[in-house]
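Good morning,

Attaching, inline, the backbone tokens for the sequence recovery test we're adding to the shared suite. The designed sequence is right after.
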């Protein structure tokens, strides 16, 4: 079973308060090595963008006005994640929005049993400390220089690197092109083709860890 690293950006903190998704990114890996398959969409939320949210991700109403709605991309999204383990940092937040959107359009919800919450893992490993994505990147000396704004696709790459470190595995990084100009859509993976695969033992440890985490109920 392949993995998918997933992240979203939104207009606010709660779907129940009327906030919506404005960006979804999914990066597929196999044994934590990028396959090159990516799902990435900017989404028209059909509502205003609060200043607080704009300051986080930089996506304006005018930029999003000609993008597809969630309803228009839902089937493609569900097809991309189908049958894959889904790794999310603070999964409760993203699933609240994704399943809220899917429920509105009468689509199948994402099964929480297929989701691994890296925040849950980090809290168990580093109790009593900040375990935000930024904090974990700093803890593991992962380059944050490109993260001037929150960006779902870039955050998927950072999460993958964080997750590998949380498992105490080692594997070469891949780079995602990023551009702060909102007119530029990030659509491709640019990664080092000279991939050195992780060892069989590390793959075994990873798979055993996945099985253990999938048995847990995070919420």
């Amino acid at each position: 079973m392949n993995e998918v690293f997933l992240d979203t950006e939104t207009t606010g903190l709660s779907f129940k308060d009327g906030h919506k998704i404005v960006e979804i990114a999914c990066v597929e890996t196999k044994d934590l090595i990028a396959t090159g398959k990516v799902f990435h969409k900017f989404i028209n939320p059909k509502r205003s963008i609060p200043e607080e949210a704009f300051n986080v991700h930089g996506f304006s109403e005018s930029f999003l006005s000609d993008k597809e709605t969630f309803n228009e991309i839902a089937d493609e999204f569900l097809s991309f994640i189908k049958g894959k383990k889904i790794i999310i940092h603070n999964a409760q937040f993203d699933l609240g929005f994704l399943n809220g959107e899917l429920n509105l359009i009468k689509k199948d919800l994402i099964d929480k049993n297929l989701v691994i919450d890296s925040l849950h893992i980090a809290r168990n490993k580093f109790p009593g400390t900040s375990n935000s994505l930024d904090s974990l990147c700093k803890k593991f000396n992962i380059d944050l220089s490109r993260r001037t704004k929150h960006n779902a696709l870039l955050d998927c790459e950072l999460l993958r690197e964080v997750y590998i470190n949380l498992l105490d595995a080692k594997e070469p990084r891949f780079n995602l092109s990023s551009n702060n100009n909102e007119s530029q859509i990030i659509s491709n993976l640019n990664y080092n083709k000279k991939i050195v695969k992780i060892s069989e033992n590390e793959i075994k440890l990873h798979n055993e860890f996945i099985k253990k985490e999938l048995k847990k109920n995070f919420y």
